[in-house]
Amino acid sequence: MPRFPDSPTSALIHAASKGGKQYDKRSADAEHRSTRRGQVTREDLEGPYPGPLDTDSSALETFSTPEYDADHGPSEGVEQDPTPHDPTQPGPGQRWSTWRSVAKGQRGPDPLPEWVVTRDAAIDTELGILKTGKEADAFLVERAVPPGADASSDGGPDLALDQAATRCLLVAKRYRSLEHGQFHRGSEYTEGRTVRRTRDQRAMEDRKSAWGRAVSATQWADAEFVALREAWSAGAPVPYPVQIDGTEVLMEFIGTEETDDLGRTQAVAAPRLTRVRPSDDLLESYWEQLTHGMSVLARLGFAHGDLSPYNILADGERLVIIDLPQVVDLAANPFSSDVLLRDCRTVCDWFTARGLDVDADALFADLLAQAF
Ligand SMILES: Nc1ncnc2c1ncn2[C@@H]1O[C@H](COP(=O)(O)OP(=O)(O)OP(=O)(O)O)[C@@H](O)[C@H]1O
Ligand SMILES: [Mg+2]
Fold it and tell me: Which are the contacts of 311, defined by CB distance < 8 A and separation ≥ 6?
């Protein structure tokens, strides 16, 4: 996976308004030219939601920077770097789009959504960190064809050039090797899963070996990508999985972009379900969307395995289920019933607390019936 050279660590601004995470974003160039303005703040999470697995109360680290100009120009007042940088080449915090560098099987399923940028001239710009987690970090990445890029040398995109998207926002979820991460998901999840290469299997068992740690991180990324791919293809409300490259999964960014009167663009990530207070109608709609998503997963033979309001995003009226590396095989995993029941109880607790009369045991029975 090509890394982002000299990636700026401070490219986003967070505001707790609108129940979402809010970011100002700007080009890496402008970022590079400027001095860091703000300081790290901590998100006031509402405390760990009851649930044995999602014990994450780790704070969201956020950063503030000067504003971003949507046309990739430096914002007013930002000091100019005298060294000109060719905007059609990757600069600091950027890399060439990795779309073409991964094999077809490592890209998302067909039909490819129109918004996915596939052109070779596209540059990935790391805009900053969305969240640091126990096992992986989620980054916001812009994939865009810079103005002035030479279309004629842009060999063979999947869509006709004139129709092809030129800019999209992605989330890069990067798994850490055991050395850096704290993998708490053990054999309970992987039971019944086949590991393709016995060499990998042996390496994973040898957690002391660097290879074993690396394989393990790759396996979790792989598992999440495959689960997203199958779930998306079957119609479950999950982010579109754009591609996988080693320990990095690139997926659809769930959220919105807003431009203020001064032309500054902000990316606002959809809030987690824990943070929203939906109206009665919306609550009911959320319930229907969630149970539909769980049913799709059950029919595929999966339980999410870590389903909680922390792993469900409320994107306006739409619910999106995220964080699927630990999906459990309902048929092959001897613990699968326990895991599915726990998922049902955790989400039902949240809906019940919001005033909807739902029954975890009934949901569990219904999902099991659909799975077998
Ligand atoms: N596709 C996405 N669009 C917008 N935000 C996202 C997306 N994926 C992840 N996030 C944000 O990043 C956070 C962490 O993502 P995720 O739950 O997948 O990772 P994780 O490392 O497993 O986290 P945790 O350990 O907290 O469960 C999410 O809670 C959400 O706020
Ligand atoms: Mg999560």
Answer: 54, 272, 304, 321, 322, 323
Q: Name the pTM for this structure.
A: 0.77
Give the helix/strand (H/E) hosting 168.
strand 167-175
How far apart are alpha carbons 60 and 38 in whole angstroms? 15
Q: What is the number of the ligand closest to the CA of 138?
A: 1
How far apart (Å, rounded) are the C-alpha atoms in residues 366 and 348?
14
What pLDDT, on the 0 to 100 scale, is given for residue 268?
93
Residue indicated by tokens 């865009």: 144
Mean pLDDT by 10 residues, the chain (372 residues): 53 36 42 30 27 28 34 46 80 94 95 96 95 91 90 53 84 82 56 59 58 75 96 98 97 94 91 97 98 98 97 98 96 94 98 98 97 92
Closest ligand to Cα 130: 1
Helix (H, G, I), strand (E, B) or coil at 166: coil
Which residue lies with its CA nearest to atom 24 of ligand 1?
133
Ligand number with the minimum distance to the CA of 185: 1
CATH architecture of 17-269: 2-Layer Sandwich (3.30)
Distance 321 CA to ligand 2 centre (A): 10
- Number of the ligand 1 atom closest to the C-alpha atom of 254: 3
Ligand 1, pocket residues at CB < 6 Å: 56, 130-131, 133-136, 138, 171, 173, 239, 251-255, 269-270, 272, 310-311, 322-323
CATH architecture assignment, domain 273-371? Orthogonal Bundle (1.10)
Query: How is the chain split into domains, by residue range?
Result: 17-269, 273-371
